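Form P-L/3: holo structure prediction, ligand adenosine-5'-triphosphate.
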Amino acid sequence: MGNSEKQGILIVDDRPENLVVLESLLEGRNRNIIKAASGNEALALALEHDLALILLDVQMPDMDGFETAELLRGIERTKYVPIIFVTAISHEEKHVFKGYEVGAVDYLFKPIEPEILKSKVNVFLALHRKTIELKKALETIESQHKELEQSYNDLKAVQSQILQQEKMASIGQLAAGVAHEINNPVGFIMSNLGSLHKYIDKLSEFIKIQTEAIEELSCNPPISPLEKGGEGGFDNIIDKIKESQNALKIDYIMQDIGSLIKESLEGAERVKKIVQDLKSFSHVDESEHNSIDINAGIESTINIVWNELKYKATVKKEYGDIPPTKCNAGQLNQVFMNILVNAAHAIEKQGEITIKTWHENNDIFVSISDTGHGIPADKINRIFEPFFTTKEVGKGTGLGLSIAYDIVKKHNGDIMVESEVGRGTTFTVKIPVVER
Ligand SMILES: Nc1ncnc2c1ncn2[C@@H]1O[C@H](COP(=O)(O)OP(=O)(O)OP(=O)(O)O)[C@@H](O)[C@H]1O
Ligand SMILES: [Mg+2]
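OUTPUT (holo model):
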């Protein structure tokens, strides 16, 4: 055991012979006995040493033990070091009490009984050792706590990175769905434009034939009805026009042009609507919190994920009369999207998804029910955990509901789930109405 781990005992007595006796009684391998012949000397030594215990004589000239004790209590280094008074004065209680008032932990009376002295000192030194151990343990805990805090912060950073990646992945998935929805109308608009192009060629040719006929007639107008049937006559020209009208299928073209244009306009309208929905889904035009019609948000979200829903379910909507509320619409739409996509995934072949909204006690409720396979009782408590998924690798990351949970909590709302295996699941989102 090194010197630094020796326990310091300060003994204070104005009589040198007492100091010698006390020292001989207390000496030990792990102890460092420091002697002071007066209160002043004791104070000076207390500033220099790490002390585990102080034995203090009460009756001393100049500064008595009580006064010394009071001053020792004022020094940072000795504030909590136990003091045992050693006194020859009477056992009268008032003295004893005075000692306790100035911070004594115990008393010893002269003449000293060596065994009592030793056992008391042993107890306090053992206590001191324990205190030191506890202090060290506390320091370790504190540093571990700091490390843990650091790892927690690191983990949080990683989690937010993962969430960001998940968001990117779900945007990718969405983009694929939206691309599919746009590709279809764009495909037939292109093919219609191709047909229109061919029709224009044929119409131009027909117009050319008609123009030539008009020119011929204006250069050689028929003079008499006799000439009507002759070479270059009126009837001939009419026949030629009719022939080319048939050959170029002008009647069919005229009919088809109408429907091609109508169909293309409808297609363009569909594309326009998808783009509008995309914009309102992500709320790219708006800053964070705005007053929003949640029903409209759900509607645009349904359109965005329509590609995921349409093969699996008929979607029933029961929109209630709900007030506008301030919220981050893009984020809330993400909540509805995650729940809707889960609902579609839970339906094996064909089912029903019902969306209801209502308003109650200044809260807006949105419930999304499906007739899917349901969630078993032993899993339902885990579905909001990040990375909890029952889906095969590549199909689910298990983040959809944890993201939804975080967003709803950030809006001071709540998200609840009820499920019955084999019958279906209902998620209910509660969002408080925020007027401004
Ligand atoms: N409507 C539902 N019906 C049945 N089970 C559901 C439903 N919604 C969620 N679950 C269960 O909760 C789990 C966690 O859902 P969550 O949306 O968090 O992750 P995921 O859908 O598996 O993956 P991700 O959404 O990240 O693609 C799902 O794997 C599924 O087991
Ligand atoms: Mg999901």
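COMMENT: Residues 322 and 359 are 5 Å apart (CA to CA).
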